[in-house]
Amino acid sequence: MITKIHKTFTATVAAIFLSSVSMAAVAPITAATFSGSVAGTVTDPVSFTSITVGGQVYSNLEYGTASYTGTLTNQYYYTAGEDPGTNLAALSNNILTDGILNIPRYLSVNFGRAITSEDLIFVTELASNGAGETLALGLIDSSNERISGTAVLFGDVGAGGPGDLFTMNVLRSSGDNDINGVGVQGSGMFLSDFGSPGSTVPYGIYFSNSSENELDPSVVGLATIPEPSSIALVLVFAGVFVIRARRRRC
């Protein structure tokens, strides 16, 4: 009995440790949980409560603030349940059902803190006919200045994934040409997937020219893996379990 407990405890520790340090390459969001129902065709605002990328589940999600130098005239989209009011506001929240159509080059999203090697950067967008569109990103510093040499072409958003996370009906800010039955897909990447920022600390991302007039993003966020303190807490509880099991055996 004790031998079995030791084996179970060892396997549990190994699984927790490996899941906390594994760094997936650019990969699709393969599963997610949501703030509301996504059954059928979604017509109300909905957000992530967790996402799964590379087999890792992330529930600690953060979102940034979008900005653009110059006048941003791109239309935005939203569901009947809410209207964000402006195109930048549509990309500065956690709402999956609104965003910007045909994103312009150099629009940026700042997360308000330094991005670390343990942060997963994720992006979702509208998927037309089951396929995402071209995603190309670079890194910005705390002042929204682009960090030279960091931009990478990541391919289609959600490429290689299981398909749409859900489908929805959305409105255009122009008030015409509603978009019905469109899908939402997403993918995630780490700092190691970008060009090296050198000594500059990255605080966010910008959409590079390869994304221009193609991508229709809805959220840009950060997801963090379990903190070491959280892992330690799990190990403490696991240790207490082993001690109690020993006492019962004795």
Secondary-structure topology with pairs:
Elements: H1 2-21, E1 27-34, E2 41-42, E3 48-53, E4 56-58, E5 61-63, E6 65-67, E7 76-78, H2 87-90, E8 99-100, E9 108-110, E10 119-127, E11 134-140, E12 152-156, E13 166-172, E14 179-189, E15 204-207, E16 217-224, H3 228-249
Parallel strand pairs: 2-13
Antiparallel strand pairs: 1-3, 1-14, 3-4, 5-16, 6-9, 7-8, 7-13, 9-15, 10-14, 10-16, 11-12, 11-15, 13-14
Helix pairs in contact: 1-3
Task: Give a written overview of the molecule.
It is built from three helices and 16 strands. With 250 residues, it is an alpha+beta fold. It has one domain. Strands 1, 2, 3, 4, 5, 7, 8, 10, 13, 14 and 16 form an eleven-stranded mixed beta sheet that branches. A five-stranded antiparallel beta sheet has the order 6-9-15-11-12, with no helix packed on it. β13 and β14 form a beta hairpin. α1 runs antiparallel to α3.
Q: Structural class, judged by helices and strands?
A: alpha+beta
In percent, how helical is the residue content? 10-25%
Number of helices: 3
Portion of residues in beta strands equals 25-35%
**Main sheet, how many strands, which sense, barrel?**
11 strands, mixed
Task: Name the helix and strand elements from N-terminus to C-terminus, one letter apiece.
Answer: HEEEEEEEHEEEEEEEEEH
Low-pLDDT segments:
1-24, 229-238
List keywords for this structure.
250 residues; alpha+beta; eleven-stranded mixed sheet; five-stranded antiparallel sheet; 18% helix
